[in-house]
């Protein structure tokens, strides 16, 4: 009887140690269900249950490699071709608007000079 208890204690200890090492060695983005830190606490605080839960729900799936999560790094605006394209479009639109305003002002000035010229040329009765 004591031999079976000793074997059981050894099996449980190996299970807990193996699950802790497996959890520590796994990559954080591959761990399932909860975070890697939470799994470590679960295995330490609830040794047998935590180890069993780790193998059932937390351990990374081995087999077809899951696609790694795309990490998005903030880029500077001048590195983004779409931003540069939009910037160039806005610059051209602003230049066109300024040119249009300048031409409208020229036209208004010409009309004003033409009216003044016509008023000067017509004799008063």
From TrEMBL:
<feature type="transmembrane region" description="Helical">
    <location>
        <begin position="6"/>
        <end position="25"/>
    </location>
</feature>
<keyword id="KW-0472">Membrane</keyword>
<protein>
    <submittedName>
        <fullName>PLDc_N domain-containing protein</fullName>
    </submittedName>
</protein>
<feature type="region of interest" description="Disordered">
    <location>
        <begin position="64"/>
        <end position="125"/>
    </location>
</feature>
<keyword id="KW-1133">Transmembrane helix</keyword>
<dbReference type="InterPro" id="IPR027379">
    <property type="entry name" value="CLS_N"/>
</dbReference>
<feature type="compositionally biased region" description="Basic and acidic residues">
    <location>
        <begin position="82"/>
        <end position="125"/>
    </location>
</feature>
<keyword id="KW-1003">Cell membrane</keyword>
<feature type="transmembrane region" description="Helical">
    <location>
        <begin position="37"/>
        <end position="57"/>
    </location>
</feature>
<feature type="domain" description="Cardiolipin synthase N-terminal">
    <location>
        <begin position="14"/>
        <end position="59"/>
    </location>
</feature>
<keyword id="KW-0812">Transmembrane</keyword>
<dbReference type="Pfam" id="PF13396">
    <property type="entry name" value="PLDc_N"/>
</dbReference>
